[in-house]
Amino acid sequence: AMAGCGWARAVRGLLLDVSGVLYDGSADGGVPIAGSAEALRRIKASGLKLQLCTNETQATRENFVRKLRALGFEVSVAEVTAPAPAACGLLRERGLRPHLLVHHDLVPEFAEIDKTNPNCVVLGDAAENFTYANLNEAFRLLIGMEKPVLISLGKGRYYKETDGLKLDVGAYMKALEYACDVQAEVVGKPSKRFFESALAELGVPPEQAIMIGDDIENDVGGAQQCGMRALQVRTGKYRPSDEQHPKVKPDAYVNNLAEAVDIILQQL
Amino acid sequence: AMAGCGWARAVRGLLLDVSGVLYDGSADGGVPIAGSAEALRRIKASGLKLQLCTNETQATRENFVRKLRALGFEVSVAEVTAPAPAACGLLRERGLRPHLLVHHDLVPEFAEIDKTNPNCVVLGDAAENFTYANLNEAFRLLIGMEKPVLISLGKGRYYKETDGLKLDVGAYMKALEYACDVQAEVVGKPSKRFFESALAELGVPPEQAIMIGDDIENDVGGAQQCGMRALQVRTGKYRPSDEQHPKVKPDAYVNNLAEAVDIILQQL
Which of B130, B157, B181 minimises the CB distance to A179? Predict the structure, then answer.
């Protein structure tokens, strides 16, 4: 066993964030992070259970998996836990009919959901669909409801694409929360319910699972709240100032996914 | 004297909000609120001092006054206190060079200000200029500053135009505040400094002035914080739920400006 790697003991399953861990995204695809495709293969060969736990809402899971496979990652739709399917479950449970302000490529995830006469707004990372007109439309629907219901697919501040930083869904969530004086319900990381559903897919209890991500709050903080260990990779949107975060401290930092997998497999 | 109108005694000057009090705006002009042009004439004929105190940032004061005169309101540029000129004063004082995310018709107000190599962002009600690209640009400038400075021309939640409610600058301010983890400096109502400059223009101390507006927080709350009395009109964006506001209670409600002026003039 390696010294100082107690955090890697008694692991049976891994939850992996995707953007910033497996690859760096861009509007037209993205580029793999060095060593991550090989690391994914080693996880699968080791017998460890694996689930991707992503806040990706710019594509259906089918198209997301197609993109990942094109980049060299051997994953299946069943291995992806994402906010849109979780939101569909919540909408059905509560009889909610959404107005969607999401990326146009995400719309098919809501194909089976009744969207007539909306009684809530579902907000995703709509990217180019974040127009002045679309934001006003979502706002008017919310303010016109007796009790406005705003469901946000994640609450990230920003993310990094190959051409620079972009405002994430959380910024637009805050705009609508303020204008309507409501609090959004967040589906996706860091919500406890979302991590629990990813763990259920993984089939491993939290104390035997490790989350690996680049987002100190949404990945690391959220997973730790569920009783999991969590690593922050120094790739993706990681910034050195994250290591002084006032509230969240990862169980360990690793330079990248490949390094994390090396250490974990040595402890098996 | 009318019963229950003690709030109208000992008045020497009025501060009036404009949109929702004098007229309801629209992209191509707007429509006067019934009785408000006549009420404005009666104020001027009475000898009461008058100042318009607006968070309007979709036009220069010159163009704003031109629009008001076309709608039948006899006002001059000197009678308008607006955020952009106040912001220019602040930028000069502190040697700040702004990146502007404002309505294109407001840009001339900043003609004399150095805008090279920006070290702050000035945010106004940019309307159609609130595009995804422009919001990302402002965000990247801010997050790239060692100490981000965000100056917001007002912090309204929303306002009403003839074709419906629109998100106001405050919603976009919250989006950038959250993404950059900064607190904006607000120039305009409800800032105390802004009301004090309007009172200075009015030439009347706060205890002899009344603010009349349709915004429970920015007009009524802000003016009361400065020691003025404040009325809420039941026109513009007024909603019955405003009367249950948890923190702000107007000195009186009036149906519209005409009713307020009737009562005030009877007490002179």
Answer: B157
Domain of residue A198 covers 13-55+189-266
Strand stretches in chain A, DSSP E: 13-16, 23-24, 31-32, 49-53, 80-81, 98-101, 120-123, 150-153, 158-161, 164-167, 185-187, 209-213, 229-233, 252-254
CB atoms closer than 10 angstroms to residue A128: 12
B131 contacts A143? CB cut-off 8 A: no
Let me know whether A105 and A193 are in one domain.
no
**CATH number of the domain to which A178 belongs:** 3.40.50.1000
- Asked if pLDDT for residue A107 goes beyond 80, the answer is yes
Of the residues B186, B217, B239, which one is the last residue of a structural domain?
A: B186
pLDDT band at A2 (very low <50, low <70, confident <90, very high): low
Chain B residue with CA closest to A142: the answer is: B165
Q: Nearest CA to CA, how far is A157 from chain B (Å)? A: 5
Residue B31, chain A, CB below 8 Å: the answer is: no
Is the Cβ of A164 closer than 8 Å to some Cβ of chain B?
yes
| Residue ending a domain, choose from A186, A201, A226 | A186
CA distance B66 to chain A (A): 27
Q: Does A104 touch chain B (CB under 8 A)?
A: no
- Regarding whether B115 and B148 lie in a shared domain, the answer is yes
Given an 8 Å threshold on Cβ–Cβ distance, is A178 in contact with B170?
yes
pLDDT above 70 (res A246): yes
Do B176 and B220 lie in one domain? The reply is: no
- The dihedral built from the CA positions of residue A248, A252, A253 and A257, taken in this order, carries a sign that is negative
A163 close contact with B: CB closer than 8 A: no
Q: Provide ipTM, 2 decimals.
A: 0.90
* CA neighbours closer than 13 Å in the CB half-sphere of residue B122: 29
Task: List, for residues A39-82, the tens digit of each pLDDT value.
Answer: 999 999 999 999 999 999 999 999 999 999 999 999 999 999 99
* Cα–Cα distance for residue pair B150/B177, rounded to 1 Å: 8
How many domains are there within chain A?
Answer: 2
What pLDDT, on the 0 to 100 scale, is given for residue A251?
Answer: 97
Q: Is residue A151 part of a domain?
A: yes
Taking 50 as the pLDDT cut, the residues of chain B under it are: 1
This prediction has a pTM of 0.90
Q: Is A242 on the interface with B (CB under 8 A)?
A: no
